[in-house]
UniProtKB/TrEMBL annotation:
It comes from the Eukaryota. Keywords: Signal. This is Dickkopf N-terminal cysteine-rich domain-containing protein. It comes from Dichomitus squalens. Residues 1-16 form the signal peptide.
Amino acid sequence: MGTLALLLALTLSASANSTPGIACTTMNDRLDAATGKFTSDCDDASFCSEVGGANGTCQPRQCRRDEFPFGFANATVPPLCPRGSYCPDEGSGCRPLVAVGQPCQVGRDEQCAPPGNWQDLASGLNANGSVCLNSACTYVRRSLSWLGDH
């Protein structure tokens, strides 16, 4: 009975993710509530590429944000993005940093462009004087250390 359960678990696990060329939809793109990990119809090494809102196909990731990414055992790892750009959660390709007031992905402060005086605002609580707050890029207005004083 244990072998049957293992085979069933492996089958369900394999069907939950797709490989490049398989049909997908970005409507299923999401962050896992427990882990914060991005999940989609595609496997960890691919993203769902849609054209004009129509269902798409899983394509190999074009970029990565992690130094040691998941899902690339014995495979070519996509590049990290150069300074001044970021890789979105889905890995669809490097994009320019986001201006203040524009949308950013949840928990992705590094997507936001820094203000001109970023050195004065940067701290251990932010990378470059900007943060993604309520899914929008904003500048840090003052040192966040004051939060501990109240």
